[in-house]
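can u do me a favor
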């Protein structure tokens, strides 16, 4: 099987911007090696869990290989040194003997492995591929199981000599793939007390002569305990693919953490049957239709046919159309009803395919104590600011086949300025932009593109703007040479991260930033005109947060790093209210109190955001 096929199954379609972090304990190059020759015996290195050791892993693996010898062939050799175990395994041995020993298997699979019948797996794969709710809950991140089915099924089909057309690269796995996957895990013996002793499985590479925890990492937990920092009354706008306001992580709660139906305080009244801290939802993906005087206006979400409200909106349609035809300035009051997504049970439309916006919002503001009881994680899901209120501004398409554009993002930023300009007090205190627009050097000065200029205006209006640095820090080569698959990029910050006034955030490891430094994919400075960027780094690797349909999902990227800094800025404002409306001072405080990771400044900026030190410095 070609390397490109395995990479497609593992990372997604080639035309998508793919990041090479992963969630399985089996590292990607292991799958690629088995894909080259599925019948081969491959040498792999097994890293023990920190609560186990190499001799124990080797002993248990030998016992499992011996028990499986009749089904999978000879046991091969199993060796170990002080830190790792080396074993030469066939593909079935990898899956049946080694994988069940991992902590990932214990957490995500073991509780429901008994239900892995072929019909159940086919139903699960179909529902997950179509992003339909109701898929059997077998893991905190069921999409990982879908990916596992597709990768294992494809390699196993090739091992069995099946035809290439039986392998599907997109959509639901074929029945043949599901059947091949199920056959490998049929009558699998349980690991028992030995489950969880293994951490990861990597390739034994050839050498030559030549050369939840992220909340703790930024100290948000310590700040909450020491200062009792509450972000009630502070609101953040998330410009993204959309937030699932029905997710339990965003429900309103009382001081004890129980869900509450207490009516919210804030802007003008709006029917909110969802009782969510996502207080408003606006769909900017229809902004082009709304601003086209010759296009039919989409229906307003809050209109009931035949009602007085519907009649009033009909009049607004006429006014809006006339205003546009006369070339008048944008009247956001006229546009707002047609942008708004109602928070009624009958009218609310949640994201259907892309969990990116929900994931970002969860990092910033999730509060889901019940997750400890309802998922195998056995711990609550808490964002940096668990009581923060959010505005959901949908500017990126929920469907990955659709395209986003700069125009839509700019319109949403302008709407944020409108919201604040028409109230006595600020309505939106900060904006999170976990998105990127590649800088066009042939047409714009760096930091002076339209979206950068709009961000500067938003900051000038007193709003903190936090944006991702981008994921263009590594350039993957078309062809690997001597094991090298690419090189690193300087001057790779994307817009709007090139804007001077915004807080541009790169990515670091979620738990051990001092050891691992800046993530390989994180865009690096300086900017094209010589300014130091990024400004800060924050955890962005394998971050667990909210997904669609009440799930939890793991994602990577500077998109995940940015909301950590948004949360730090929100906590700073909530503790010191006199900083509201002073985004440049907030940026200065966060940068001066950051933790130096000892890396190149063009990689790390001022360092990793430190919420506790920032609060203590004022």
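np, heres the sequence
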């Amino acid at each position: 099987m070609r390397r490109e096929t395995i990479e497609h199954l593992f990372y997604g379609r080639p035309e998508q911007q793919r990041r090479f972090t992963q969630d399985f304990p089996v590292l990607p190059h292991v799958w690629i090696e088995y894909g080259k020759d599925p019948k081969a015996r491959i040498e792999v290195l097994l890293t023990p869990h920190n609560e186990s050791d190499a001799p124990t892993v080797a002993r248990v693996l030998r016992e499992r290989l011996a028990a499986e010898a009749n089904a999978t062939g000879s046991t091969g050799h199993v060796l170990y040194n002080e830190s790792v175990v080396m074993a030469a395994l066939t593909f079935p041995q990898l899956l049946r003997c080694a994988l069940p020993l991992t902590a990932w298997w214990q957490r995500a699979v073991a509780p429901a492995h008994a239900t892995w019948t072929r019909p159940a797996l086919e139903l699960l794969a179909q529902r997950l591929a179509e992003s339909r709710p109701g898929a059997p809950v077998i893991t905190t991140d069921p999409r990982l199981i879908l990916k596992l089915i597709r990768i294992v099924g494809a390699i196993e089909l090739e091992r069995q000599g099946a035809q290439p057309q039986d392998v599907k690269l997109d959509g639901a796995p074929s029945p043949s793939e599901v059947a091949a996957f199920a056959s490998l895990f049929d009558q699998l013996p349980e690991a028992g007390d030995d489950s969880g002793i293994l951490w990861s499985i990597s390739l034994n590479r050839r050498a030559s002569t030549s050369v939840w925890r992220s909340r703790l990492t930024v100290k948000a937990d310590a700040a909450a305990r020491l200062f009792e920092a509450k972000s009630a009354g502070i609101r953040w706008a998330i410009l993204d693919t959309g937030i699932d306001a029905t997710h339990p992580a965003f429900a309103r709660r009382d001081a004890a953490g129980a869900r509450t139906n207490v009516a919210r305080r804030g802007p003008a009244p709006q029917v909110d049957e969802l009782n969510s801290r996502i207080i408003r939802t606006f769909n900017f993906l229809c902004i082009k239709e709304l601003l086209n005087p010759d296009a039919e206006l989409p229906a307003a979400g809050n209109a009931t046919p035949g009602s007085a409200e519907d009649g009033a909106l009909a009049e607004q349609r006429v006014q809006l159309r006339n205003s546009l035809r006369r070339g008048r300035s944008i009247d956001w009051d006229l546009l707002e009803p047609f942008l708004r997504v109602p928070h009624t049970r009958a009218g609310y439309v949640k994201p259907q395919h892309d969990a990116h916006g929900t994931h970002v919002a969860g990092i910033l503001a999730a509060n889901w104590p019940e997750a400890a009881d309802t998922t195998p994680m056995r711990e609550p899901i808490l964002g940096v600011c668990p009581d923060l209120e959010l505005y959901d501004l949908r500017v990126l398409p929920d469907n990955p086949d659709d395209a986003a554009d700069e125009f839509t993002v700019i319109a949403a930023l302008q709407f944020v300025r409108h919201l604040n300009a028409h109230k006595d007090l600020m309505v939106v205190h900060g904006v999170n932009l976990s998105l990127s627009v590649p800088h066009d050097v042939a047409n714009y000065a760096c930091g002076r593109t339209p979206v950068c200029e709009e961000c500067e205006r938003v900051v000038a209006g007193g709003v903190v703007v936090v944006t991702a640095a981008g994921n263009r820090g590594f350039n993957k080569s078309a062809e690997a040479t001597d094991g090298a698959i690419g090189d690193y990029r300087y001057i790779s910050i994307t817009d709007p991260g090139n804007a001077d006034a915004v807080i541009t955030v790169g990515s670091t490891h979620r738990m051990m930033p001092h050891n691992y430094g800046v993530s390989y994919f994180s865009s690096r400075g300086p900017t094209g005109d010589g300014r130091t960027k990024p400004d800060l780094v924050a955890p962005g690797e394998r971050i667990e947060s909210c997904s669609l349909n009440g799930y939890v999902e793991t994602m990577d990227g500077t998109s995940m790093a940015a909301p950590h800094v948004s949360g730090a800025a929100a906590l700073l404002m909530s503790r010191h209210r006199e900083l509201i409306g002073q985004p440049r001072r907030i940026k200065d405080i966060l940068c001066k109190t950051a933790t130096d990771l000892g890396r190149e400044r063009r990689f790390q900026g001022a360092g990793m955001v430190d919420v506790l030190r920032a609060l203590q410095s004022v």
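DSSP finds 23 helices and 17 strands in the chain. hope that helps!!
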